[in-house]
Amino acid sequence: MPYNVYLHEVGNAGFTGNLRQTVQTRLQGWFNQIVHGTSFRSANVQWVDSAPRIEDHELLVYFCQSQINSVIRARLVPGASGNEDGLTVYANERAASEVYVFGAEGSSPMDAIPEVAFHECMHNKLNLDNHLHSRPGLAARAVSPGTPIHPSNIADMRAALPQPRRQWLDGFAGDALEGL
Hints:
Elements: E1 3-9, H1 19-35, E2 43-47, E3 59-64, H2 71-75, E4 86-91, E5 94-100, H3 113-126, H4 151-160
Parallel strand pairs: 1-2, 1-3, 3-5
Antiparallel strand pairs: 4-5
Helix pairs in contact: 1-3, 1-4
C-alpha cells in the first residue's frame, strides 16, 4: 500500500504557473526516500480539491495565502501561534498543518514552500513541538530554498510513518473563508 500525503490549496492561495508542480515534485522526492525500505510500497503525494479518505497514519497539508487566511486559526484554534511561514497544531485529537504561500514578505510567493511544507509534515508526524528545531536539515527552525533533507530527517520520518496521527479535515470547509 502507498503512503499518501495530501495537499490542499485553501481558496486561492496564490499558486501560479508551475508552483503546485514544484511543491508536489519536491515533496514526492523526499517521501520516496522516506518510504524506501518500509512496508509502504511507495509514496503518493497529491493535490486534492475535496476531503480525501485518509488513513490515520497519513498526512494532509493545507496551503493558505497568508497567516490572515489561516484556516487553522479561523476554524480550529483561534489565536494559535506559529511562525510567518507555517503552523502545525494538535487539537480535538487531530493534527493540522498549514503553509502560508506568501510567508512574511507578502509580495510574491515564498521561495521555500516545499521546504516549509516538509518541515510542517515533520511537526505533524513527530509531535516534538519546538524541540524539532534543534535537529538539522529540514527540521531546523529556519529552512530556506535548497535546504537539504538530512539523513536524520529521513530516519525520524521513516520511524514515524506508521504511527497514527489523525488529520483534521474541516479545513476543506475553510474555502468559504477565502475572503478573510
